[in-house]
Fold:
Amino acid sequence: MKRASLHTLGCRLNQAETAVLAARLRHDGYHVVEFGEPTDLLVVNTCSVTEDAERTCRYVIRKTLRHSPDAFVAVTGCYAQTGVQELRTIPGIDLIVGNQFKWDLPSFLPAPHALKKQPDAKVLHSRTIDREDFTLPEYGEPDSTRALLKIQDGCNVMCSFCLIPFARGHERSRLRDDVTREAETLVAGGFQEMVLTGVNIGQYRQGGLDLVGLIAQLEAIDGLERIRISSIEPTTITNTLLDRMASSSKLCPYLHIPLQSGDDTILSSMNRPYNVDEFMQLMHRAVAAIPHLGLGTDIMVGFPGETDEAFELTLDVVRELPFSYFHVFTYSQRPGTAALKLANQVPIAVARERAKILADLSRLKRLAFAERYIGSTVSVLFESGSTDGLRLGVTPNFLKVGVPSTLDLTNHLKEVRIIGASDRWALGQLTAEHRPVRKVPVL
Structure:
């Protein structure tokens, strides 16, 4: 049996799609092994958001060919869509598949017995990507107790720094019956939490159903305990969604809403469709409506024209708003984006220093968020394994919790009393005797 290894770069949406490709390869007779092990086939699902992501893609290929020099290397994903010419120049790549043809990648491979290095990379690529609503060809096997459920793809918002509209095409939604079937399959397999993923999931529209309507359908599935929304654009958050989150017993009180900058001039240059005041009003409205809301965001530093004053405004905003954490990104020039033509590029050393300041502030925010729950009892869904002697899991509002335990708590929902806090997680104690519940089997 031929071995296949898959590696994901970038977002949760890519992770969900890699799981689908892995399921297809298993059906085709491959033995899927962990990335880093000797393999006959490497599939890299790439990201093109930053130069670092593209650099990592090249590193992953070189690393694999060092221990598996005869491995057939197939590259797909966003870098394969936007950087096909660059990928052609990388030694060792045998197949390049753009996003339009991603789901057909296994059918483009040679038969397993004929799998071998090629003299030149075969390329399957189209500049256009279908606009129709879609289904998935397989249901993936999640590698976490929190299953990723893809509901949407593509984006129509042309942010000046972003390649995603070019990499993934126009907004389109997954057929709701297909979403529901996968969710029911995952629940039957023992999964208790679904994370809704997509590029711009707030734009989900399918057969008259919007995101809130889809959530209502998922809430009706017996055995599904939690529904979590992944990153969502501020302009797509409706009062109806906030009301649903406030009243639902299954929709997690958690929002990750990209801010990017706290300066209106920079937001305008980014072509972000809101200003700082509108964003802050939304955050205050959400926190007022939803008890114990966990709130995260994305911040970009070093965007062209970001002065010291503009950065200070960003600091002011993120200090004031009750974020529990934020992800910090350093601006990366992307060929084909409007921002590439902007003047007043920020020196990389300045951008990195700003990123460090924000990362330090994020750790303080995470610590303060954890400290709020000392003395409280929270519900925790545990992941597999342990770190630093602790079993780790998350609460509905995305507080990471660690408990000292020798028990296997994988995929258990347990009540935990919080007794301490750090800038990594809250420290807790199980409040009741461990009782086995169903574990996640292989689908």
The chain has a mean pLDDT of 94.
